[in-house]
Amino acid sequence: MEEEASSVDDHAFAPMVSLEMSIGMFKSQWQFCDRITEYLSDILGQGRSDPARYSNFLSVATNELVELAFRSTSASGKISFDLCRSPTFNRLRIAFPCEKTDEDTSARASEGQPVPGAGSEFLLKSDGEVLLNDLAAIFRAAIRIETDGALGVRIIADFPLNEDFR
């Protein structure tokens, strides 16, 4: 599932919503995590046969990813939350600047290659990788972390549109 979602061309996704705010504002109140999650989850549920159920189910994963971003941001700048939809996936992308990265991660990212677990020394706690793997398994999602040449981080989660939840 992860390889299938990861190989989907970004251009195949139609934008649904984009939210951007300063990191200072985002980090000023923990409640922003809940509010952003609720907003994004409601939009994810649109067009489903049972929108409340779909939104509620995905709000758990969305909340964990938003909170991961909250704990991981320390640089100034902007954080953005984007939702896109393809015929088979909903994509959540959270992007923000970071202050440091290792040389191997930077080199791979500058070549345009996804870097699973990139920057884990500053982005993820010791059990962060387990969290991402657990979320991916529970929600049958492809979740990855990428860096770009501008020392930014993107958390990308592709959730299947199939409503057959376990």
The shape, in one word, is: globular
The SSE order reads HEHHHEEHHHEE
Please outline the major beta sheet. Answer: 5 strands, antiparallel
Low-confidence stretches: 1-8, 101-122
Q: What share of residues is helical? A: 40-55%
| Mean pLDDT across residues | 76
CATH topological fold name: Heat Shock Protein 90
Helical region count?
7
Give the tally of structural domains.
1
Oligomer: single chain
Protein name: Histidine kinase
Task: Briefly say what this structure is.
It contains 7 helices and 5 strands, in the order H-E-H-H-H-E-E-H-H-H-E-E.
Structure description:
It is a single chain. This protein is an alpha+beta fold and 166 residues long. It has one domain (2-6, 15-160): Heat Shock Protein 90, CATH 3.30.565. 43% of the residues lie in helices and 25% in strands. The chain has seven helices and five strands. It has helices at residues 2-6, 23-28, 31-45, 51-72, 103-110, 120-123, 128-139, and strands spanning 14-22, 78-85, 89-97, 142-147, 152-160. A five-stranded antiparallel sheet has the order 1-2-3-5-4. Strand 4 and strand 5 (152-160) form a beta hairpin. The longest helix has 22 residues, at 51-72. It is globular and about 40 Å long. The two termini are 15 Å apart.
